[in-house]
Design goal:
about 260 residues, alpha/beta, 2 domains, seven-stranded mixed sheet, 7 strands, globular
């Protein structure tokens, strides 16, 4: 099995050599995107270590960041947490840290602070290993996939908020699906949040103060209820109308009419 030369990317070598030795993964590491892809991974590892205040040994010592097993879903989920930590840094959150839940107890992934509020975040990754329901609109595919994990995420947020005295709870969805990342825009993500809020008797977002979408293309869409707005993000744009949880962050790229078409 061919092994890339990562000598000029020491953190990639440290975190990914075991993974790349155990399997071929052209989905996450397309050959035609290298070496630029290694540059991006290297920067992400550097940023993650800096923001989280950890050594590379301490980070890899955590199961979610040890990729040697070759589990592609675990790789995507671990990298998603690093992407979210960098997104938080860019939006001037401070004291970003990984949550260490009690043994066998549920817990969120991250905590941070802004505007005097302590925030906990649970990161759910829509991985390339998964797929949406055939024949559904892109928006509906993403909505259904989020519904699969939102109940567990809500419990994890509730547990960490109680234990760590967090005032704001945010569900983060890292979307690694290409089509949704390209075609869905602020309005589409607002509709997904609306549907989750009024999700029959289940009301999937009960007790959740915000939803943050981070797309494969690097765009961010943040929706907050009144409690969530305590973190106050004036730099992220005007409030959008439409639901009790409203958008405060617009993407840099608008969707086309193709976002409305059914997925093949």
């Amino acid at each position: 099995m061919a092994h890339p030369d990562l000598s000029v990317h020491p953190l990639c070598s440290y975190f990914l050599s075991g993974y790349l030795s155990s399997r071929e993964d052209p989905t996450n590491f397309p050959p035609d995107e290298c070496p630029a892809l290694w540059d991006r991974y290297e920067r992400l590892f550097e940023s993650g270590l800096q923001v989280l205040g950890l050594t590379k040994e301490a980070l890899k010592g955590k199961p979610e960041f040890n990729f040697d097993s070759g589990d592609a879903a675990n790789l995507e989920s671990g990298m998603a947490i690093l992407r979210v930590s960098e997104a938080l840094r860019q939006q001037n959150f401070v004291n970003v840290a990984l949550v260490r839940p009690r043994k066998n107890a549920p817990g969120a992934d991250l905590t941070c602070e802004k505007n005097g509020q302590k925030v906990c975040l649970e990161v759910k990754t829509i991985t390339k290993q998964s797929s949406g329901l055939p024949g559904c609109f892109f928006e509906s595919q993403l909505y259904e996939k989020i519904r699969e994990s939102v109940s567990k995420a809500r419990a994890q947020l509730e547990a960490s908020a109680k234990e760590l005295q967090c005032t704001v709870k945010i569900l983060v969805c890292v979307v690694n699906w290409l089509a949704q990342s390209i075609y869905l825009n602020q309005e589409d993500y607002q509709q997904i949040v609306n549907r989750l809020e009024r999700d029959g008797e289940q009301k999937s977002l009960t007790g959740v103060d915000g939803v943050l979408f981070v797309t494969k293309m690097g765009l961010q869409f943040l929706f907050l209820n009144e409690r969530g707005k305590l973190i106050d993000l004036p730099s992220m744009g005007p409030l959008a109308s439409g639901a009790s949880m409203k958008g405060v962050a617009e993407g840099r790229m608008g969707a086309t009419q193709e976002a409305r078409r059914r997925a093949s």
